[in-house]
Amino acid sequence: MTIDIAFIGEALREISKVIPLTLFMTITPVLLGIVIGIIVAFVRIQQIKIVSSVLNFYVSFFRGTPIIMHIMLVYFGLPMLVDSVANLLHLKIQSNSIPILFFVILALTLSAGAYASEIIRSGILAVPKGQLEAAYAIGLTFPQAMRRYILPQAFGQSIPNLTNVFIGFLHATSLAFFLSIKELTGVANIIASMNLKFLESFIAVGLIYWGISIIVEWVSHRIEKRVTAYSKGGFSS
Questions:
Q1: How far is 159 from 109, CA to CA, in rounded Å?
Q2: Where is the ABC transmembrane type-1 domain positioned along the sequence (predicted)?
């Protein structure tokens, strides 16, 4: 058995066509997940009754179960909820009009939010308490102190872990092929099946994933250096 190097090049060209879709399916959930994570982290740190308990369950459930299950729960469960609400309120909305991509992004966003919340919460707790006390001493409110001093420092410490989340969800987009969305792995599967060259196809898609991951790590390193330099002074900055 020999490896068809030329076919790897052909596969790379074909698979590369869906890089924009794969990046969209990665960047959107991670960015939305970070927003959710910040809100969840704040509420859990403040220990608001009932709400904190609900959010603790949310984080525990989504971190303790596989992403493929989240996708399937949203894909099969949300349409039932939409149809039930539409029938109850006599709305002209049908679940079959919702794009499949929406279900995948929603499931990935909920998963990303759970992971991001723990990363951000640990980053906030790692900032010395004196920073917050000093902010209170000059009359800043909790949101102002968080925005101007605590979050920049927490974000700097969280960047490596958030980068890992991004790369992890880049790989998780491959699960969308179960719902017939043609992302990187899905197209590699199709090309492999059509040409019976599975090794070459998966070498090609592996190179693409690896290349994107290297770029993400490089960008992350640059951002981390800038954020760390900005926040090194802590409250004095």
A1: 18
A2: 19-220
